[in-house]
Amino acid sequence: MPYQLCILGCGTMGVAVLSGVLDNLRAPNPPEQHDEDSAPSTPMGSMILEAAPDSLPDRFITTVNRLETVKKLRRTFNDLGGLGPTVQVRQATENVKSVAESDVILLCCKPQLAALLLLAPGMSEALEGKLLISILAGTTISMMREWVPASCTVVRSMPNTPSKIREGMTVLSTLPPSDPKTPLNRDILMALFNPLGKCRFMDEKHFDAVTAVCGSGPAFVCLVLEAMADGGVMMGLPRSEAVELAAQTMQGAARMVLQTGIHPAALKDSVTTPGGCTIAGLLALEDGRVRSTVARCIQATTMHAAGLGKSAPSPVIKD
Ligand SMILES: NC(=O)C1=CN([C@@H]2O[C@H](COP(=O)(O)OP(=O)(O)OC[C@H]3O[C@@H](n4cnc5c(N)ncnc54)[C@H](OP(=O)(O)O)[C@@H]3O)[C@@H](O)[C@H]2O)C=CC1
Ligand SMILES: O=C(O)[C@@H]1CCC=N1
User: Fold this and answer.
1) Lower Cβ count inside 10 Å, N or C end of the chain?
2) Strands of the 104-107 sheet, one edge to the other
């Protein structure tokens, strides 16, 4: 049955996820894109389970902190000429009311604010029996369980900014098989996140690494993309063409990995003509220790992500 989705803390990521969800409501993926035969069923494949069509929300509430953000979001979501469902945009003073009126809650605030929001007076009652999906880095399910009533189901997700154009990668925490609500919640999660790109379930113990690779990953990839374009500019390419060439080349290489399942090293070797120019570039990268630098970047990000939720202020009063 269609339901109301509340996005608590609708900033960069809330907007990215909601934009993707709304776009899917306006123009659902053609069935073949998620068909078991044509969707990547290689080891690189996304979750291909279809969710029941009525597992999608049809009403939306978002909350933000500042009045200027309220105005900005109203323009973003409701100036679509009456197309699609209405998105109500409210200020943080209406967090509890918004949760009380909704069925599924997407928690998108900063990790440091989670306890404050979830322990606000009246929030516990508002969350009774509901599904809370957190996208917060470093904030564990067991931490959130301390802040919500026992009847509230807590799920972790780690989407990324390309969700906005439905090219995202989302990892969802594994659901307990024994919970009778699991099939329904699984349908809701798949219906929300599958159309935003790719989506898979993983054990929560991997979430800090997942945060580094797919949550932060777009930033790292864009830095490399920018550097490739800079090199092109250095060698005389116009800036916009250099960016286009680098972006499409990265997308093409990534798609080959996803669609063929061939190891990236083998694809790299297939570009590297003996005595050719690619090996000259690869050796320059190896001299710069790019591989260990990138791997260490993921390691450092993972370790930092693990600490993010720990700095949350813990209000002492739970109503
Ligand atoms: N950015 C990314 O690429 C990713 C982020 N994440 C996670 O997503 C979460 C949000 O990150 P991001 O979107 O970048 O952060 P933003 O700062 O862009 O968004 C946070 C939002 O929370 C709002 N807010 C602040 N206080 C309150 C309150 N008391 N009640 C309701 N809303 C409030 C802010 O409103 P206002 O704008 O008015 O201040 C803002 O819109 C983080 O937990 C992060 O770990 C996960 C994956 C990727
Ligand atoms: O930088 C951050 O903390 C968030 C989490 C993943 C991406 N952005």
Assistant:
1) N
2) 87-91, 57-64, 3-8, 104-107, 131-134, 153-158, 168-173, 197-202
Tally the C-alpha atoms within 13 A of residue 177's C-alpha that lie toward its C-beta: 1
Note whether 102 and 159 are same-domain residues. yes
pLDDT in tens, 167-177: 999 999 999 99
ipTM of the complex: 0.99
Instruction: Calculate how far, in angstroms, residue 178's C-alpha sits from the geometric centre of ligand 1.
Output: 33
Q: What is the pLDDT of residue 36?
A: 36
List, as residue ranges, the binding site for NADPH. Answer: 95
The reply to whether 195 and 219 lie within a common domain is no
Q: Which ligand is nearest to the CA of 105?
A: 1
Find out whether the beta carbon of 133 lies less than 6 Å from any atom of ligand 1: no
Instruction: State in Å: Cα 77 to ligand 1 middle.
Output: 17
* pLDDT tens sequence across 142-155: 999 999 999 999 99
Domain assignment present for residue 318? The answer is no
CA-nearest residue for atom 2, ligand 2, is 216
Span from the CA of 70 to the centroid of ligand 2 (angstroms): 23
Same domain? For 287 and 146 the reply is no
- In a shared domain, residues 143 and 221: no
Can you give the pTM of this predicted structure? 0.92
Q: Residue 57 domain-assigned?
A: yes
